[in-house]
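User: Predict the complex.
Assistant: Input components as received:
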Amino acid sequence: MTIATERQITLEDFIKLPETKPASEFINGEILQKPMPQGEHSRLQIKFCTNINQVAETPKIAYAFPELRCTFGGSTIVPDIAVFRWERIPKTESGRIANRFEIHPDWVIEILSPEQPQKKVLTKLLHCSRYGTELGWLLNPEEESVLAVFPGQKIEIYEGDDKLPILENINLELTAKEIFGWLSFGS
Amino acid sequence: MTIATERQITLEDFIKLPETKPASEFINGEILQKPMPQGEHSRLQIKFCTNINQVAETPKIAYAFPELRCTFGGSTIVPDIAVFRWERIPKTESGRIANRFEIHPDWVIEILSPEQPQKKVLTKLLHCSRYGTELGWLLNPEEESVLAVFPGQKIEIYEGDDKLPILENINLELTAKEIFGWLSFGS
């Protein structure tokens, strides 16, 4: 997952490189390519975005974006899901959504892929927390657990019927069980 | 790793059960048996205890115990390594070490075993943090990372040459690299 870089590159250098697929991130001076998304990842990503936007878009509270590059605090990351409060969504002068997001998300959701080192994803969530992200989630589909990161890098673990913490003012109630239940397709 | 328990058992019930090998723990109402320790686990466990006790025993600062049952906060756990500040080590009236430790350790070190769910070990470390443990370490030999838990359940990730946080007043300096270097035996 780590691309060996002999020479130290800067954020400015990194930003100029062509985008890769899956996206590459630049965190703490290190370039990391995201794992190739698979079934579970894809399903959870779209389910979350849909669920959040269903309750948060019309009342203009927040919006959830999949795979959006966010550059802040000397790093550039592409969270699986980045949720921004409505008034913080960067816009052009004509009021259209900006292409470059140079601010921290308010809520970041990461889905652990098989074989992906947990420390890399946690490092990303802690970077967000340090720069103002109010809530981080690390979903572990294998363990069916959610690790939440709160301000001050405080963490909690949720599983089963535990009610998950949601970004304030978003009218959503979810348990760990419900989320991982999305992975089962009834016949 | 989880032993299915249909009926709810209490801490009092659990304590009366015979000890198992590996030890069983009772956390948040759930009985969990520790994984069978293997090479890496065994090596790290003894290395840590030796290193800590070498600097902390003679000046009566602290003592590191492997596999010691600690019962507090409605749970009973057996950390891989439990470090107690000298003055907090429970003693009998005659000044001998007590057999039952009914207090939280000051520093808890857990070594993740292959296949062991990280959430279970983190839940244990967070339980300790909530009840007063100053420092928790979760060593991940596969990822060569250390997740540290500070008061208020605040976490940080350490790897490579990062200097690891040590329980205050213990005169020890260690990096993640040094610790996982202990796993290599020179020929």
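Chain A has a mean pLDDT of 92.
Let me know if you want any component modeled separately.
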